[in-house]
């Protein structure tokens, strides 16, 4: 499996533009998120201007990616999740705050997600009780790992090159057991010179949680398959994906999406 624990950039157009009304909006008839159980993102359509972060007072839109605070609406307007395992995100020192999708996870699951700079990795007392989400020949899937053998998940955040370097050369990470997920196709809007199986970090986290449910929780919940329990991890991600799609569809012929991205990424005719 290939993963890119990638980056999110809310470009100037997205940060400052106003989404059109439903009558004007050329929306996707079939969104790839239609089958997901994601809460309504309608509140985000009402956020037409920037607001001040309640903690650091920076002018932001949607959320503060420095303080991980909801901006422009109430915290109760944003989904809240409790995850089945604690997650520590190790962010590469050169990864810009405004480009990281892990902010979504921290805001939606604040009690279960912690974020650290790669220069401030915690000293783990029991590293043998950790899993590192990263692909490789020595990585195992969850169905090969007993649930009682780990307590926490580590995730590296950065470009593929940055993340790979961290896992290989960082003393605290290089000997941690690796876990991987089944191949998935990314919906990420930022261009990457990799295959479509390289995921944004929030996508990788979501699919890990989904596989965790199927592997360990579905039996106790009397479910035969995944029930959408962790779909709201993609709440912001879904909104930004559909925002970009509708923005370029509405301005077809006037504004062109990067030609470096894979052909057909913008769904003009769907």
Would you give an account of this structure?
This protein is α/β, with parallel strands linked by helices. It has one domain (about 10-250). The protein contains six helices and nine strands. It has helices at about 10-15, 40-45, 100-110, 160-170, 200-215, 235-250, and strands spanning about 50, 60, 65, 70, 85-90, 115, 130-135, 150-155, 175-180. The strands form three sheets. A five-stranded parallel β-sheet has the order 6-5-8-7-9. A hairpin with a 6-residue loop joins β1 (about 50) and β2. The longest helix has 17 residues, at about 200-215. The protein is globular. The protein starts with 11 loop residues before the first helix and ends in a 20-residue tail after the last helix. The relative contact order is 0.21. It is an enzyme of class 2 (transferase). It is found in: Nucleus. This is tRNA-uridine aminocarboxypropyltransferase 1.
Shape by Cα distribution: globular
Label the structural class.
alpha/beta
End-to-end C-alpha gap = 29 Å
Give the mean pLDDT. Answer: 84
Q: Could you say how many structural domains there are in total?
A: 1
Report the major sheet. 5 strands, parallel
Oligomer: single chain
Low-pLDDT residue spans: 1-18, 20-26
Q: So how many helices?
A: 6
- What percentage of residues falls in helices of 4 or more residues? 10-25%
The radius of gyration computed from the alpha-carbon positions, rounded to a whole number of angstroms, is: 19 Å
**Percentage beta strand:** 5-15%
Widest sheet, order of strands:
6-5-8-7-9
Number of strands: 9
Succession of helices and strands: HHEEEEEHEEEHEHH
